[in-house]
C-alpha cells in the first residue's frame, strides 16, 4: 500500500519542507536481505562495573560468532571479556566514529547512583548512531531480585530505553533484554534479532530471556527440517509469515478458510508448502490440523495469525459481531492449543506464536470486541507459558502485538485516522507485514528456547498503550 507522504519526505525538497514545518520525517528502514551481514556496521560495547562477567562473556562470544567489528571506550573492562572471546576491540576515539549498534551490559547495576554509568556511556555517543541503528541494554529481571535498591535500578532501565527509542529517530530502535541469572547462554537468538535489520519496526520493547533448552542451529537456515503451520496464510500478515518461515527453511502448512483456496494455493506453491482449508472455529479444526501435521511427523510450530475485526461502538454492536470476533480471535486459539497439546501433535521443543494487537494493550474506540479478544490472547500466552515451563518439554509460547501494519485491514481505515495511526510512532511510518513475520520467525526458532511468555510489540514504538 502506498505511503505518499512517506515517499515525498524521502525527496530532497520533501526533506526540507518537513524539517522547516516540524513534520514527521520517516526514513526508509533497513530490512533483512539474504546475503547481507547480520550487523551492518560497527558495535560499541560497554558494561557497568561489577564482578559478574557472565552477561559480558556471552555478549563477547556472540559478537565473535557474528564477526562483528567491535569498539570499546578506553579503560572499559568490557575489553577483558572481548579478549577472552578472541575479539580485539578497537578503541572508540570520540566524535569521528559512527556506530550501528550500541550495546551495554547493565547487569551489575545495583542502585540508583550506578545508573549514572548508563547515562555516561550513551550520552557521549548519542549523536554517533547510524541510521537504522540499534541501542540494546541487557539487565536482570527486577522480579527475580529481592534487594530493593537493585530491583529499582534494574527496573529504571525500562524508562531509559523507551525514552531513547523516542528521541533518537532516523529508524534507530532501542530495546531492553532482561536475562535471568544462569540463562546467559540463551541470549543468542534475542541478540541476533535485535542487532539485525530483521527487527526494523520493533522498538521500545522489554524482552525476558530465561531458562530453556539451548539448541544448536545453522543460523543461515534456522528452521531447516521444521514443519510449521500458519493460520490465515492466504494474504496479508499470514502470507508474509509463511514466506519468511519458508525462507528460513521450514515446510509451511498454509491454512485458511475454504473461500480463500485459490490465494492460499498460490502462496503455498510459491514456497513449496502445503495447504489446509478449514475454518478454525469449526468443531473438527483440531482433528484436521492433526491429520495434516501427522503426515509430516507432527508440528514444530503453530502460528495463530488468523483474525478478524468487526468494529462498532459498544452501543451499536450486535451480538453476532461480538461472538464472531471472540470465537475466531480467542476461543479457537485456546481450543486448538488444548487439542494439539493433548494429542501431542506439537512435538517436544515446539513453538506456539500468537498474533495479538496493540489494540489489546491500549484498547481502541469501536473495538471492544477486538481489543477484548486480543487482550485475551495475551492472557492465554501468560497462562500457557507457565504450564509449558512446568511440563518441561522445552515448548514455548509467545505473542506478537502488531501496531499499524500496511495491509488490506488498515487500507480500509478512513484517511485521517489512517494517517494518525501511521505517524504516531517513533518511526513515523506504518510497518510492513514482513516486520511482523520476521519477529514471528525469531520466536518460532529452535534457538529461542529461552523466550517464553513474552509479548513483543511490532509497532515502531506506537504511542498507543506505550
Ligand atoms: P487479513 O484480513 O488480511 O488476513 C486474515 C486472514 O485470516 C485471512 O486470510 C482470513 O481468510 C483468515 N481467517 C479469518 N477467519 C478465519 C477462520 N475462521 N479460519 C481460518 N482463517 C481465517 O488480516 P491481517 O491484517 O493480515 O491480520 C493478520 C493478523 O494480524 C490478525 O490476527 C489481525 O488481528 C492481526 N493484526 C493486524 C494488524 C494490521 O495492522 N493489519 C494490526 C494488529 C494486529
CATH architectural name of the largest domain: 3-Layer(aba) Sandwich
> What is the number of beta strands?
14
Secondary-structure element order, as H and E?
HHEHEHEEHEHEHEEHEHEHEHEHHEHHHE
Q: Taking strands numbered 1, 2, ... along the chain, how are they ordered across the largest sheet? A: 3-2-1-4-5-6-7
> Globular, elongated, flat, extended or rod-shaped: what is the shape?
globular
List the ligand species: nicotinamide-adenine-dinucleotide
Question: Structural class per helix/strand content?
Answer: alpha/beta
3D structure, described in words:
This protein has helices spanning about 5-10, 10-20, 55-65, 80-85, 115-125, 150-170, 190-195, 235-245, 260-270, 285-295, 320-340, 360, 370-390, 410, 415-425, 435-445; strands spanning about 40-45, 70, 90, 100-105, 130-140, 175-180, 205-210, 225-230, 250-255, 275, 300-305, 345-355, 395-400, 455-460. The protein has a seven-stranded parallel sheet, sandwiched between helices. Helix 3 packs across helix 4 and helix 10 runs parallel beside helix 11 (about 320-340). The chain folds into two domains: about 30-210, Rossmann fold, CATH 3.40.50; about 225-460, NAD(P)-binding Rossmann-like Domain (Rossmann fold). The protein has about 475 residues and is α/β, with parallel strands linked by helices. Bound molecules: nicotinamide-adenine-dinucleotide. Nicotinamide-adenine-dinucleotide binds near residues 232, 257, 305 and 355.
Amino acid at each position: 500500500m502506498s505511503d505518499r507522504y512517506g515517499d515525498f519526505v524521502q525527496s530532497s525538497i520533501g526533506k526540507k519542507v518537513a524539517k522547516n514545518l516540524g513534520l514527521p520525517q520517516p526514513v526508509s528502514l533497513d530490512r533483512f536481505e539474504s546475503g547481507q551481514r547480520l550487523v551492518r556496521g560497527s558495535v560499541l560495547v560497554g558494561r557497568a562495573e561489577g564482578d559478574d562477567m557472565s552477561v559480558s562473556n556471552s555478549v563477547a562470544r556472540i559478537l565473535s560468532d557474528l564477526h562483528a567489528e567491535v569498539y570499546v571506550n578506553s579503560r572499559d573492562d568490557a575489553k577483558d571479556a572481548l579478549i577472552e572471546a578472541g575479539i580485539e576491540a578497537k578503541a572508540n576515539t570520540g566524535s569521528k566514529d559512527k556506530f550501528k549498534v550500541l550495546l551495554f551490559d547493565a547487569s551489575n547495576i545495583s542502585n540508583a547512583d550506578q545508573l549514572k554509568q548508563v547515562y555516561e556511556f550513551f550520552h557521549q555517543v548519542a549523536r554517533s548512531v547510524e541510521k537504522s541503528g540499534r541501542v540494546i541494554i541487557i539487565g536482570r529481571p527486577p522480579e527475580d531480585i529481592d534487594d530493593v535498591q537493585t530491583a529499582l535500578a534494574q527496573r529504571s532501565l525500562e524508562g531509559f530505553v523507551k525514552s531513547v527509542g523516542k528521541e533518537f529517530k532516523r529508524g534507530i530502535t532501542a530495546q531492553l533484554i532482561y536475562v535471568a541469572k544462569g540463562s546467559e547462554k540463551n541470549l543468542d537468538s534475542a541478540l541476533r534479532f535485535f542487532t539485525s535489520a530483521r527487527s526494523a519496526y520493533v522498538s521500545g520493547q522489554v524482552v525476558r530471556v530465561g531458562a530453556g533448552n539451548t539448541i544448536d542451529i545453522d543460523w543461515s537456515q534456522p528452521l531447516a527440517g521444521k514443519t510449521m503451520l500458519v493460520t490465515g496464510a492466504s494474504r496479508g500478515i499470514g502470507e508474509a509469515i509463511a514466506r519468511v518461515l519458508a525462507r528460513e527453511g521450514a515446510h509451511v502448512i498454509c491454512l485458511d478458510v475454504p473461500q480463500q483456496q485459490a490465494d492460499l494455493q498460490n502462496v503455498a506453491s510459491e514456497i513449496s508448502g502445503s495447504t489446509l482449508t478449514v475454518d478454525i472455529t469449526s468443531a473438527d479444526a483440531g482433528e484436521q490440523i492433526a491429520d495434516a501435521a501427522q503426515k509430516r511427523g507432527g508440528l514444530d510450530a503453530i502460528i495463530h495469525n488468523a483474525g478478524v475485526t468487526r468494529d462498532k461502538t459498544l452501543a451499536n454492536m450486535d451480538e453476532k459481531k461480538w461472538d464472531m470476533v471472540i470465537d475466531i480471535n480467542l476461543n479457537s486459539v485456546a481450543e486448538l492449543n488444548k487439542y494439539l497439546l493433548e494429542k501431542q501433535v506439537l512435538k517436544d521443543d515446539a513453538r506456539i506464536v500468537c498474533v495479538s494487537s496493540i489494540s489489546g494493550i491500549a484498547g481502541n474506540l469501536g473495538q471492544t470486541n477486538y481489543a477484548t479478544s486480543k487482550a485475551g490472547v495475551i492472557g492465554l500466552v501468560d497462562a500457557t507459558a507457565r504450564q509449558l515451563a512446568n511440563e518441561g518439554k522445552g515448548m514455548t509460547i509467545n505473542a506478537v502485538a502488531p501496531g499499524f501494519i500496511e495491509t488490506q485491514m488498515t487500507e480500509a481505515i478512513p484517511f485521517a485516522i489512517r494517517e494518525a495511526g501511521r505517524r504516531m510512532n517513533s518511526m513515523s511510518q506504518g510497518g510492513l507485514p514482513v516486520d511482523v513475520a520476521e519477529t514471528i520467525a525469531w520466536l518460532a526458532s529452535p534457538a529461542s528456547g529461552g523466550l517464553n511468555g513474552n509479548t513483543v510489540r511490532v509497532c515502531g514504538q506506537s504511542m498507543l498503550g506505550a
